[in-house]
Amino acid sequence: MTEVILSKIAVMFIIMAIGFVCGKIGLIDSKGNKILSNVTLLLVNPLVMFVSYQREYSSAIAKNLFISLGISVLVMTLQIAIAVVLIPKKRDNSAIERLTVILTNCGFMGIPLVESVFGGEGVIYLSMYVTVFNVVAWTYGISQMTGKASARTTVKNLCTPAIFAIVLGLVFYFCRISLPSIIKEPLETIGNMNTPMAMLVAGATLSGTNIVKCLKKIRVYIITAVHLLAIPLIAAAILYVFSKLGISSEVLRVLLIAISCPSAVITTMFSHRYGKDSVYASELFAVSTLLSAGSIPLVMWLFSLMGV
Question: Helix 161-174 to helix 59-86 angle, to the nearest 10 degrees?
Fold first, then answer.
């Protein structure tokens, strides 16, 4: 499995490199990248998750869904606790660093990677982690960025296409509603755009960062190491315990991939939106994305050595 993941990551990073070049030569400017990002985030990603539920009902998959949700909540709670302990609120850019440690790029990078390795069933399990990610990002994440939160704003922020697609997909799945092929096929075709579009957006985003400059910052490496190595390895140990309880290895491997993904681009977006240091957020995103090419295969290889 490690070889397959490494191969898929190589393909994704080649597409990302193309996006980087497109950003540098102006073929994808900041305005165009924002449009591509919105299309991917608000249309393509949700369709991938919705279509993944268009399959024959299985009690085993249904059971694994709830298990995936429970483990996702547990791990995300642990990630928040680690971030709070390691990064005092009084530090400059504490909100950015905490969200960098907590939030992974499970949508842009996790979905195409899991889909290519495990197929549609893997995306179903990943959708539970994505759901928890969205809840945390749009509640805890915004409260960190703004220093305040209201119930009304929280409810409004949770009404995202990704969560809507997951809820609708679950309804269709448990009610055993299958779309006719004339509708399902176009949705699947759009969903197939997910990997190239997500990686082009990531590459174009990196092109706007002074990579050489941010590679010289020790603090960037510390935060990135916590995100890419410390948390995934702690999570791997927890998932190993679950494997001994008879939990599906596929569910555990999917969740570990989601946890091991680089820092989420949404942290940079929030930084822009709420007047934080978006340059620093971009630097953390850039370095974690580049180093994840080595860290993800490493974490998954170590997990395989544990017999999962």
Answer: 150
